[in-house]
Amino acid sequence: MTQSIESSAYQEIKQAILYGRIEPDEILSEASLSKKLGHSRTPIRSALKQLEQEKLVVYKKNRGVTLREASVKEMVDVTQICVEWMILATKKAQTGLSILDVDAIQERLTAAKNYRAALDYAQYINQMPKVYTKIMEAAGNELLIPTYENLWARVISTSLYRKMADPHNSPKKTISTVQFFQEYLALIENNQFDQAIAKLMDYQEYANHQILHYGTL
């Protein structure tokens, strides 16, 4: 067996998880995955072990392998880390130590808005972190982006996050995530950095409220 076969099996299963093609309560057996992906059980087993180490799946006694659930606390913590890094990036841009690429951020935000409008929630879920990471780039720390992406991968596939992506579960609200960041970008363009930082702090409170709401469903 070559390393490329192991890598292929790993990437295929991981993409299926991240893009919502595997349900949170679905049992991931080596036999079913082998048949579905056209690989032998050995690379499938290796891929599942690697995904377990990455906290994307969990082995449950007498059940098999399922997607790992993220807790409400974990979701809140990841959101806080994300916002803190975006605030750091904004402060560096404010002092002239870096530049926020507003056009690139807007392009990613528009794509997220379009996915949401088209009811393509899998793409929307995967697009919004690209907005966050583009802002984080201004922090000037190359370790931030892959670290956040690894954290995000651990929560994006869970049933809690899918509840958040379903508009039928949404509580009444006067502003959306996309609107928050539209307003943030408008403040940046007007050099109102203190207000932009305050907007990010408001977003964290908003996001935490959303997570707590969905955690009770």
Automatic annotation (TrEMBL):
Keyword field: DNA-binding, Transcription, Transcription regulation
Pfam families: GntR (PF00392)
SMART domains recorded: HTH_GNTR (SM00345)
InterPro entries: TF_FadR/GntR_C, Tscrpt_reg_HTH_GntR, WH-like_DNA-bd_sf, WH_DNA-bd_sf
Statement: the UniProt record of this protein carries the keyword GTP-binding: no
Domain HTH gntR-type residues, every copy: 3-70
GO molecular function: DNA binding; DNA-binding transcription factor activity
Protein name from the UniProt record: HTH gntR-type domain-containing protein
Lineage of the organism: Bacteria, Bacillati, Bacillota, Bacilli, Lactobacillales
